[in-house]
Amino acid sequence: MGWLSQSLNSSIGKKFVMAVTGISLILFLIIHLLNNLSMYLGPETYTALVKSLDGIKPLIRVIELVLALVFVFHIFNGVRLWLENKKARPGKYAVNGSVKNSTLFSRTMIQTGSIIFIFLVIHLNTMWYSFNFGEAHATHDYYYFVAEAFNSNIIYSLFYIFAMIVLGFHLNHGFQSAFQTFGWNHKKYFPLIEKIGFLYSLVMAIGFASIPVYFLFFYGGN
Amino acid sequence: MSAENLKLKLKIWRQKGPNSAGSFSKYEVAVSPDTSFLEMLDELNDSLERKGEIPIAFESDCREGICGACGLVINGQPHGPVPLITTCQLHMRNFKNGDTIWIEPFRAKAFPVLKDLMVDRTGFEKIQQAGGFISINTGGVPDANEIAIPKDISSLAMDAAACIGCGACVAACKNASAMLFVSAKVSQYALLPQGQPERYERVQKMVKVMDEQGFGSCTNTYACEAECPKGISVTNIARMNRDYMKAKIISKNVEV
Ligand code: HEM
Ligand code: FES
């Protein structure tokens, strides 16, 4: 299988891995957002929903493992590409012309990615851990746990909101970029892909960020 | 006709050789708005020589935008502020009296500076030698239009073939990626019947050499397309990505 690793480690191969993993994460985020938005259906429904997932825990564990691998490959290749690309361009220009020829989103993928990574670590440590092994798992009061986490800690909530805006930035470039990487750039469809990507990023950023906003400002406690 | 001369401050990258450290030197010039950018540098070099100083090294050949020899980064943009032209086609009327102009060489690890504003673009030649051609028996002159090619396809191939190999794409890219250049060279053959026999071997070989030269990877910022003097489209990069992955999957060769 030497040819496979050689292909995936070529400049185009590494990008291909970024695009495959990126699109997988994009699909995952849709499921995740739907799950989060179900909080608006109220404490009973949400808690029942989360509890109902207990029955398929083994399957969820497998999916989580795949997801973790996808993240690892995405992050590993992203950082590797960034380091290699920096080496390919050692000198800086005295005048920065990039403002005129490219978008901010496209130039800051490693920065936005890194912030998402920091968020991810905190997020796993708080939400994921608690839902699976910690406090929320013990009490089964998932809704209350999330509500309190946001309501009682404004710094945490604000960071969460900030990270979701940053995620929107990452996705706004990433979505169409993945299609270009796959070679699906056609003048009939590409403008539509860019628009769908923008809309998707907007829905993700607003959707995810709406939860902490709701519990910070519109939640009366119980 | 005789418009006022423009008084300009130039900050030009001076570097003695490949291994010496470079820095910017300041020059003040007064030029007619009708001169071209390279003529302005010629005039400056004349005056430097008259003073016994070493003239500024820069490349040019055709001076009409077809050879790709010229290529300077002017105020951070390869080939300067005007889209779709080369440095030699840029005229001083695009600048204002009193402007400061920063003039630098292309910066990329794969394009080492030889002297001042001159860089070594042998990397491009090596990529071309790896597959930027078709292998056919020359023989007699074939009849024109012997092979029917749809007009829109031949136009796309011609658009890709418009690449003059100047390297502005590499210079503009924050990763110093050569994808726009290589994809143009791959596409001009991939689109035409004559290019089919070697299509999938070509793309693999050219990408391999591209990677070996130390060019970066593409992050799809599309800065290359924005700065390309010939308007080469990034859809060529998409085509190359497609052909490359397809080649890796279908080709019989394990090693390329
Ligand atoms: C849910 C989270 C994430 C999603 C949905 C996502 C999605 C994407 C997508 C679709 C791309 C475009 C791929 C391409 O250009 O073909 C991309 C690129 C990138 N991502 Fe992510 N990403 C996520 C998290 C991260 C994280 C945590 C990092 C950490 C470093 C990261 C770093 C990068 C980098 C550096 C690129 C640019 C790669 C390149 O163009 O060379 N991403 N991402
Ligand atoms: S000198 Fe030939 S393109 Fe400028």
What is the strand and helix layout of this fold?
The complex is a heterodimer of chains A (222) and B (256).
Chain A: H1 2-8, H2 11-37, H3 43-52, H4 57-88, H5 98-101, H6 104-107, H7 109-132, H8 135-139, H9 142-152, H10 154-182, H11 190-217
Helix pairs in contact in A: 2-4, 2-10, 2-11, 7-10, 9-11, 10-11
Chain B: E1 6-14, E2 23-31, H1 37-50, E3 73-74, E4 77-78, E5 100-104, E6 113-115, E7 118-119, H2 122-131, H3 151-161, H4 168-172, H5 179-190, H6 199-212, H7 223-227, H8 235-250
Parallel strand pairs in B: 1-5
Antiparallel strand pairs in B: 1-2, 3-4, 3-5, 6-7
Bound molecules: protoporphyrin IX containing FE and FE2/S2 (inorganic) cluster.
Protoporphyrin IX containing FE sits between chains A (15, 18-19, 22-23, 25-26, 29, 74-75, 78-79, 81-82, 109-110, 113-114, 116-117, 120, 170-171, 174-175, 177-178, 181) and B (217, 219-220).
Task: Name its key features.
heterodimer, A: 222 residues, mainly alpha, 11 helices, B: 256 residues, alpha+beta, Ubiquitin-like (UB roll), two-stranded antiparallel ribbon, 34% helix, 12% strand, elongated, binds protoporphyrin IX containing FE
Strand order across the biggest sheet of chain B? Answer: 2-1-5-3-4
Shape of chain B: elongated
What's the pLDDT, averaged over the residues of chain B?
A: 96
Largest sheet of chain A: none
Percent helix among the residues of chain A?
over 70%
H-E order of chain A: HHHHHHHHHHH
Describe the structure in your own words:
The complex is a heterodimer of chains A (222) and B (256). By secondary structure, chain A is mostly helical. Chain A has one domain (2-217): Fumarate reductase/succinate dehydrogenase, transmembrane subunit (3 helical TM bundles of succinate and fumarate reductases). Chain A is built from eleven helices and no strands. Chain A has helices at 2-8, 11-37, 43-52, 57-88, 98-101, 104-107, 109-132, 135-139, 142-152, 154-182, 190-217. The longest helix of chain A is centred in the first third of the chain and has 32 residues, at 57-88. Chain B folds into two domains: 6-115, Roll (Ubiquitin-like (UB roll)), CATH 3.10.20; 121-250, Alpha-helical ferredoxin (Fumarate Reductase Iron-sulfur Protein, Chain B, domain 2). Chain B has helices spanning 37-50, 122-131, 151-161, 168-172, 179-190, 199-212, 223-227, 235-250, and strands at residues 6-14, 23-31, 73-74, 77-78, 100-104, 113-115, 118-119. In chain B, strands 2-1-5-3-4 form a five-stranded mixed β-sheet. The longest helix of chain B has 16 residues, at 235-250. Chain B starts with 5 loop residues before the first strand and ends in a 6-residue tail after the last helix. The chains are: A mainly alpha (222), B alpha+beta (256). Chains A and B meet through α1, α2, α4, α5 and α10 of A and β4, α6, α7 and α8 of B. The structure holds protoporphyrin IX containing FE and FE2/S2 (inorganic) cluster. Protoporphyrin IX containing FE sits between chains A (15, 18-19, 22-23, 25-26, 29, 74-75, 78-79, 81-82, 109-110, 113-114, 116-117, 120, 170-171, 174-175, 177-178, 181) and B (217, 219-220).
